[in-house]
Amino acid sequence: MKLYTYTLIPIDYQFPSPVPYVIISEIYEPTEEEFDVETVALFFAGWQEDLLADEIDVNEETLPFYLNNTAENQVESRLFGKRYRPSGRVTVFNTDSGSAEPLLKAKISIGRNFFWRNTYTSNNGNFEAPKKYRGKVRIRAKWRGETATIRRTLNELAGLWVSDHLMTITRGNNGATKNIVYGEAHDGAFGVDMVGGHLWYKGTVHNGLRKYNDFASSNGISHRVNSANTWCFAKGDASSAPMLKRFPQLATLSTVANIGQANFWSVMTNVAAGFAIQLVPVHLRPDFIYGGLRNKTLVVGGQSNTVRIHQTVFHESSHFSHASKAGAWFWAQNFASQMSNNISFNNPYYAGVSPSQQAGRIIALAEGWANFCEFKITSTIYNRAYMNIGGFRSMHNLAGVSNNLETFNKYDVPMVVTNITDNQHWFAHGVMWDVMDNVVDDPTISRRRTSDGLPLNGIIDECFIGNSSNANDLAPLFNRLNGNVETPAELRDALVSAFPAQARQIISLFESYGY
């Protein structure tokens, strides 16, 4: 049984290559000057409601007189002259600050019936229609733009009914504001979504992606998030960046971690309500899966927390940038290794040596970069970040993020001790923080033994490769993260080549970390 969807598209719209389609007929859209043509078309189509919305009250007897009158009096008596350019503002409630913030550079549609025009909100959340209208128009959020396509419900994952109604604008309420509040009910195709809110989750993830890209543009991360398929769910497991649209061959490459495609897909299945990713066309598969947005690690004070969600978005977006620069082969090794660990140990990272020593080193680099960016970007934008410093999933809101990473305890692998936290780990974000900061640390005992956590040696931090005029410039690190750099030791070698004047200091720092 085939499922057909009928829609109206611009004549120059390009369908994704895997999507079969048939153009049934072309429909003429009247220009702004051809109001009479549009009126007649709406009248004979029986769309009286839309004519009344345009303040046109005609019937079969009065239509000829009405049109004759408007033709003879182009300006004075034509009701069509009451045109206006719809405008407004869209905001999203920030549950951390307790205030509304603009919906940043989001694609929206303005129109009604068949014909819609697209525009974008500004950095202040403001928008203006690209043409003038008569009567009421509807404003829809598309959640599809150059940064990402954001989907939440099953029908949206399949590409159906993907726009969300925001508000209706008339000449009388032009300039209205739509506040997307936490907990707003949304009557979707699969029932009412109440807790948190369908629009709120989408808007919050969207703003996180935009904030990441704005930071990246100004601070040396050349590969930003673009055209990314993004799935977000209130329920579900932890978030991830499978990159299945960007790298459609990833499932095939999963064999690098000695797992077959069947096992690969078994882990990627049941993301939400038993929905199987492999049944979705390639162009709709996710690059990001934000799961558990209402889980306890992302909830503060009984509400899903905006900063916690954005911090998660920054983490996964950093993966996107890294994967885009390093390429499919690197990401296949990293992601498939984590999948293998999930299958074997129900933990994507395990102890740092599985499914092989090399796989553990790759994970250390990839997750180290994402952790480093997560804390760096969040603390820069919000002047604080949430960190696990007290045990498993014990998240603390800290203003002194740098202090905790300055005292980072690096554990050798396999890390079998149980006190793994964000500042006691085998990931490489500690050495990344030290190589980029402008602080010369006193030798402190920070590298620890795998079996019991006892100290091995102090960290020797005497190097600084950052930008003295921009402490947030991450280019010195990001520029090294190409496909030839898969492990922390290879990152060390790349940094030595890029900064030969500090070769001794870089080598000493990395060796004190055990690399």
Protein model, in words:
The chain is α/β, with parallel strands linked by helices. Helices cover 32% and strands 17% of the residues. It has helices spanning 35-44, 48-53, 63-72, 154-157, 198-218, 250-253, 261-268, 306-326, 328-345, 357-382, 401-406, 429-436, 475-478, 488-498, 503-512; strands at 87-94, 99-102, 107-112, 115-120, 126-128, 137-141, 148-151, 164-169, 176-180, 186-188, 191-193, 228-232, 288-290, 299-300, 303-304, 385-388, 395-398, 409-411, 424-425, 444-448, 455-459. Strands 1, 2, 5 and 9 form a 4-stranded mixed sheet that branches. The protein has a 4-stranded antiparallel sheet with strand order 4-3-6-8, with no helix packed on it. α9 (328-345) crosses α10 (357-382) and α10 (357-382) crosses α12.
Topology:
Layout: H1 35-44, H2 48-53, H3 63-72, E1 87-94, E2 99-102, E3 107-112, E4 115-120, E5 126-128, E6 137-141, E7 148-151, H4 154-157, E8 164-169, E9 176-180, E10 186-188, E11 191-193, H5 198-218, E12 228-232, H6 250-253, H7 261-268, E13 288-290, E14 299-300, E15 303-304, H8 306-326, H9 328-345, H10 357-382, E16 385-388, E17 395-398, H11 401-406, E18 409-411, E19 424-425, H12 429-436, E20 444-448, E21 455-459, H13 475-478, H14 488-498, H15 503-512
Parallel strand pairs: 1-9, 7-12, 12-13, 18-19, 18-20
Antiparallel strand pairs: 1-2, 1-5, 3-4, 3-6, 6-8, 10-11, 14-15, 16-17, 20-21
